[in-house]
Amino acid sequence: MRTGIGTWEGHSLGVFVTEVRPRWSDMDLYGHVNHANTVTLLEEARVDLLFREAALRGADDLARGVVVARLTVDYRAPLFANGSGLRVAMSVREIRAAYFVLDYQVHTGPTEADPIGVTASTTLAPYDLVGAKPRRITDTERDFLAAFHSGGNGA
Questions:
Q1: What is the pTM for the complete model shown?
Q2: Nearest to residue 2, comparing CAs of 80, 101, 95, 112?
Q3: Per the domain annotation, does 155 fall within a domain?
Q4: Which of 9, 62, 77, 100 lies most in the core, judged by the most C-beta atoms within 10 Å?
Q5: How many structural domains compose the chain?
Q6: Tell me: the pLDDT tens digits for 24-71?
Q7: What is the DSSP string of 47-90?
């Protein structure tokens, strides 16, 4: 799996890029990755950003609790499990006191030149698992998220 900073629709922005690999079992009767498994691939990409990359940059509290408050997925082309990875570019569209919005572009292959198959967004809220309640975004988390802020909408 590759991760790093990349581009969003050809523009150099605060974009995090990773690669996910669909499994053969992710495909449905029509031969493409089904919706539930597409959502799982989005989660795998999000974990790379919010858990791995955040920890490397000192914002490891995100790994202690964040919940998906809203999810939208738009399909442009089918995704297939053919042994190749899929490029996922993510950027933060909005940062508020207690939530943020993450946009995704999932390409049909491992490169930026591969067509975009899926665009998606998730509204995420930091969550205190011990107190069982949402919490505010810390200054450290805000700084981390701001590094990937795009102002776009993923479309």
A1: 0.88
A2: 112
A3: no
A4: 100
A5: 1
A6: 999 888 889 999 999 999 999 999 999 999 999 899 889 889 999 999
A7: HIIIIIIHHHTT-GGGGG-EEEEEEEEEESS----SS--EEEEE
